[in-house]
Amino acid sequence: MSGPFVLTKYGIAREVPKKTPGAYILGGVRLKPNYEGAQAVGRAETDLAAVLQSQIGLYEAFLFQPAGSAEDAFRLECELYHRLDRPDLKHPQRPSGTDWRCPICGRAGDEDPPDDSTGPSKAEESGSPARFP
To answer: Are 106 and 119 in contact (CB under 8 A)?
Structure first.
């Protein structure tokens, strides 16, 4: 993850590539690279810079990681959600029309986790982001 950076139009324009998918963490001025101070996690399926701009004024700082595709952005968001391990955040929802599942727990969203026979195996987990509550 890159950052933290101040969540302003200038900070986003300087640091975040336009028209690229990715995942992010938002927080206050004390947001740290180790995610301390994180308040929210999310993703952008097509334009990370535009999504971050929509959060200006709601949060003060951000971390981000570009992704190669919308599916990669979903996986990153799931991985960050699980790393944060915060009960006040909701599990990321997969985009409608997809069959994507969380690489950590096998969920498609907030439903109950699947039993061990349908979830990802430890070998399938990739290890590295949660929607706003």
So the answer is: yes
